[in-house]
Write a structure and sequence with these properties.
This protein is an alpha/beta fold. Helix content is about 25%, strand content about 20%. The protein contains 11 helices and 17 strands. The strands form 3 sheets. Strands 1, 3, 4, 5, 6, 7, 8 and 9 form an 8-stranded mixed β-sheet that branches. Strands 10, 13, 14, 15, 16 and 17 form a 6-stranded parallel β-sheet that branches.
């Protein structure tokens, strides 16, 4: 059993990293592959614009309990780390314990390749009888003491990842408030919570919530605080800790995982049918590794997804030294001590919208860590450019990854982040 008290403290000085993609001598290439189900298997894909902003989260139902000293448990299954990160945020916010659902026969990357009709996850999808599996543990120590149970999972083909079913079948939820949550790049919670409630047959099941991959901890905490759980379960935010932000720009040229052009595939990766930009993927890996907040730099005037039009606009902006307007501001930027900055390389430079970003915020006294994705031009001297734009900032060595290698770069990114000396 992998039950433990959750204190997923923010890796204050330990910084997150974002990798960005870009066409070496041609503009925008950003997007990176990520493992699948927590999504589903990640496919390497062309350079294409990042997914559109996530749809607003649905309001959660009031789940206030009667016990003043009620205990909270966060149960989750995670295939690639996205759901695990959200579970940690919830446990931190509630002071709850954590229990990880772990198949006795773990899924490999090949098992999770949903695009392969012969992969384990595809065969289980096609034949529900194969979804019954042994878990390393189903019994939770002190299960009867928990009044509120969060159940987390990635969405697989519109429903909860089926390892969760086996945990539900093994436990009695009588007298407990149960709150499902899921992670998905685009799919909603759908009927997943309702289906689990029917499977359990007991418990007071709430509506639940869907979170995008790489969601900021602040967004999760805001949702938890809106649930009106017993006050004994809600932990005050830690103060005095260094804060880390992962800010990135990514421009996948499609959101359709099917029939991609070469250019579209160069800038993207696909996770469980969801398209992510190369740099977007890197940013999410960094965010998960550091438990940082994450912010996507988006233009007020969206970039076109047609490759020829996109690179022409990128070239024109560079020739005219344009400062494209940024859509939304960073909330409380001054509170961050360390900022990861991620971008693709366009025309051997940062996209012009990055210059807007550096013009807008004062990085003096902050630690800045660049990361990028490229099509052959590496960093193209951009870290030196950033240092010249922000002379008052402390620069750490960044990481740049080729779009050809982004698919399998997760461990490289994690090792880089863990090796940073702030």
């Amino acid at each position: 059993m992998r039950q433990k008290k959750s204190r997923f403290a923010l890796l204050a000085a330990a910084i997150s990293l974002f990798l960005l993609v870009g066409c070496a001598d041609t503009p925008p290439n950003s997007g990176t592959p990520a493992p699948v189900p927590d999504g589903a298997q990640v496919e390497a894909q062309p350079d294409t614009p990042d997914d559109a902003p996530s749809a607003p989260e649905e309001p959660a139902e009031d789940v206030s309990g009667n016990a003043e000293e009620g205990k909270t448990l966060v149960v989750y299954y995670s295939a690639t780390g996205s759901t695990e990160a959200v579970a940690g945020y919830i446990a931190n916010a509630t002071g709850g314990d954590i229990f990880a659902i772990t198949p006795a026969d773990p899924y490999s990357s090949a098992d999770l390749n949903w695009t392969d009709s012969e992969s384990r996850v595809s065969r289980e999808h096609d034949d529900p009888s194969l979804r019954t599996m042994e878990l390393t543990e189903t019994a939770v120590d002190g299960w009867e003491d928990y009044d509120t149970v969060f159940i987390g999972y990635p969405i697989w083909w519109g429903i909860a990842a089926w390892p969760v079913d086996n945990f539900i079948n093994a436990n009695d939820f009588t007298g407990k408030t149960v709150i499902p949550f899921c992670t998905s790049s685009s799919s909603g919670l759908g009927e997943s919570g309702k289906l689990l409630a029917e499977l359990a047959g007991t418990g007071n099941w709430q509506e639940g919530q869907r979170f995008r991959s790489g969601v900021a901890e602040a967004d999760v905490v805001e949702w938890v605080n809106g649930l009106n759980l017993p006050m004994a379960n809600i932990q005050p935010a830690q103060s005095g800790e260094a804060k880390v932000l992962v800010a990135y720009f990514s421009m996948p040229e499609t959101t359709d995982p099917n029939n991609m052009t070469t250019e579209e595939a160069n800038s993207t990766v696909v996770i469980n049918g969801e398209v992510l930009g190369n740099t977007q993927y890197m940013a999410q890996v960094i965010q998960r590794t550091t438990n940082a907040d994450i912010y996507r730099i988006e233009p007020q005037n969206p970039y076109p997804t047609d490759h020829a039009t996109l690179i022409a606009r990128a070239r024109d902006e560079q020739d005219q030294d344009t400062r494209p307007a940024v859509k939304d501001a960073v909330s409380d930027f001054d509170s961050y001590d360390t900022v990861f900055i991620g971008y693709p390389i366009w025309w051997s430079d940062m996209p012009q919208i990055l210059y807007t970003f550096f013009d807008t915020y004062n990085f003096s006294g902050k630690t800045v860590i660049p990361f990028s994705t490229h099509g052959g031009s590496s960093f193209a001297g951009t870290p030196a450019t950033i240092q010249s734009l922000e002379p008052g900032a402390k620069m750490l060595d960044g990481l740049t990854i080729s779009r050809d290698n982004i698919q399998d770069a997760e461990q490289e990114i994690v090792s880089w982040v863990n090796g940073l000396d702030n």
